[in-house]
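During the practical work, I worked with a single protein chain and the tokens that describe its fold, as given directly below.
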Amino acid sequence: MTIVASRIFRSSPHRDAAETWGAIVDLLTSGKSGSARTELLSVSGVASSIIADQASRDAPIVVICDGPRTRIYCLYDEDAVDGSGASEDALGYDPLKGDWGVSLPCSKDDLAWVQSALKKHSSRITARDLDDGIATEAKTQNAAQPLVLDVEGFLGS
């Protein structure tokens, strides 16, 4: 899976955590109503809590779909006020195409309650320990095997 885009949203104090989540939902849904928007908005309280805890400063919100992945970060404090590092432009593709999912970074201390709260509203929106990261590439079939170059096959012999 390829990462085509990352976006960086201005959060606190430029906008509060709920407004930041609303802006992210607008980006992901292109402002259109529908089941995806409803599902994303159903977790607004939990997502806002994660944004307020600044978990998405260094660990991205990751959006996975049948197409490319999207990473979303947030700016806080002086960086949010300045806004020079922000990138909130529309995406050139549908980040919720097909079988989509959203992974929210969360502190280890809050992970259990956040996962439980998200599960009540959505199976597509999950939380992960922000220290664990998330796979950014498709898994190889067997990473333990070394790479072997077939020279004859490559040269067409």
In short: The two ends are 32 Å apart (CA to CA). Confidence is low (pLDDT under 50) at residues 136-145. The CA atoms of residues 9 and 74 lie 5 Å apart. The longest strand covers residues 3-10.
